[in-house]
């Protein structure tokens, strides 16, 4: 099957998140946590056409996912979609004309099927997504302390799995963060660790899965090489470079990479 969907990860991490899911008839922007200028610069860098964006989907209200939204909307006539809880959670969000959906809704935007599922995070009503088009599928989940059952079901055997791999449990434990923050991050409503994500891959990776992208990596409590190494060990992938920032299974079918804060990547 030739891929119908492409994922442009323009920024990923606690300093700002934004991705574009590109389909044959249009695109969806997922979260808008960086400035419009940076968004457009990064999109240009990856060859992503922001004029093709038909809708913005918000996962949740944290500023690293929403900080650029108000200015972006001043220049955007498409649909804004999120849950009622997220829309009502901040004054600057409640002023925007959202189309409200439930965290278990299914709908389509520009020929791309969107299946929502609830995530577990310390906010009003967060969600993740499975995007599908003509047999192709991309899974997207970040900012969740654990993977809910609907998340596990929705993310099963997608071709591209963009999944949070926020922190190395040991680095977080011995790192500089205050105790309350360590507790928040590692709690069931915080962020997925490399180890949790690696454990989930056994369930999620199927015959159609070709790329696993570690998302929302902590700059203080993780390293791209650690995230990639931990996920790779769960799926039998081996390093393809000396820095261990990319790995592949011996048959070449499945790649493991990590997204970053400062550099956009595209998964074709
Ligand atoms: Zn976040
Ligand atoms: Zn968050």
Structure notes:
- The chain is an alpha/beta fold and 268 residues long.
- The protein has a single domain, classed as 4-Layer Sandwich (Metallo-beta-lactamase, Chain A), CATH 3.60.15.10.
- Helix content is 26%, strand content 28%.
- It is built from 10 helices and 16 strands.
- The protein has helices at 36-46, 63-66, 69-73, 84-87, 91-94, 149-154, 169-174, 179-186, 194-204, 224-235; strands at 6-11, 18-22, 27-30, 53-57, 79-83, 98-101, 106-109, 112-118, 127-133, 136-141, 160-164, 211-215, 238-239, 246-248, 255-258, 265-267.
- The strands form 2 sheets. The protein has a 9-stranded mixed β-sheet with strand order 7-8-9-10-11-12-15-14-13.
- A hairpin with a 4-residue loop joins strand 2 and strand 3 (27-30).
- Helix 9 (194-204) runs parallel beside helix 10 (224-235).
- It is globular and about 45 Å long.
- Bound molecules: zinc ion (ZN) (2 copies).
- One zinc ion (ZN) binds at residues 60, 62, 121, 143.
- Which residues sit in consecutive blocks of at least 5 with pLDDT less than 50? none
SS elements, strand count: 16
**What strand line-up does the widest sheet have?**
7-8-9-10-11-12-15-14-13
In angstroms, what separates the terminal alpha carbons?
Answer: 13 Å
Structural class: alpha/beta
**Helix proportion of residues, in percent?**
25-40%
Do you know the CATH architecture?
4-Layer Sandwich
Please compute the radius of gyration using only Cα atoms. 17 Å
| Number of spatially distinct domains | 1
CATH superfamily: Ribonuclease Z/Hydroxyacylglutathione hydrolase-like
CATH topology: Metallo-beta-lactamase, Chain A
């Amino acid at each position: 099957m030739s891929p119908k969907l492409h994922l442009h990860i323009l920024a990923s991490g606690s300093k700002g998140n934004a991705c574009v899911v590109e389909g044959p008839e249009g695109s969806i922007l997922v979260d808008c946590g960086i400035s419009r200028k940076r968004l457009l610069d990064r999109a240009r860098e990856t060859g992503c056409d922001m004029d093709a964006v038909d809708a913005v989907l918000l996962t949740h209200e944290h500023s690293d996912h929403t900080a650029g939204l108000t200015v972006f909307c001043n220049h955007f006539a498409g649909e804004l979609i999120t849950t009622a809880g997220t829309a009502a959670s901040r004054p600057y969000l409640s002023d925007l004309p959202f189309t409200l959906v439930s965290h278990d809704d299914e709908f389509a935007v520009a020929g791309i099927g969107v299946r929502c599922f609830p995530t577990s995070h310390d906010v009003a009503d967060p969600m993740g997504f499975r995007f599908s088009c003509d047999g192709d599928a991309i899974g997207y989940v970040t900012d969740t302390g654990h993977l809910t059952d609907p998340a596990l079901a929705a993310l099963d055997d997608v071709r591209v799995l963009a999944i949070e791999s926020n922190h190395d449990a040991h680095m977080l434990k011995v790192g500089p963060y205050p105790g309350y923050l360590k507790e928040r991050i590692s709690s069931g409503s915080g962020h997925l660790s490399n180890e949790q994500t690696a454990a989930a891959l056994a369930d999620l990776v199927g015959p159609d899965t070709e790329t696993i992208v570690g998302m929302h990596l902590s700059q203080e409590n993780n390293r791209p090489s650690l995230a990639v190494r931990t996920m790779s060990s769960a799926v039998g992938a081996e390093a393809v470079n000396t820095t261990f920032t990319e790995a592949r299974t011996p048959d070449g079918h499945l790649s493991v990479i990590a997204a970053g804060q400062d550099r956009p990547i595209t998964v074709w």
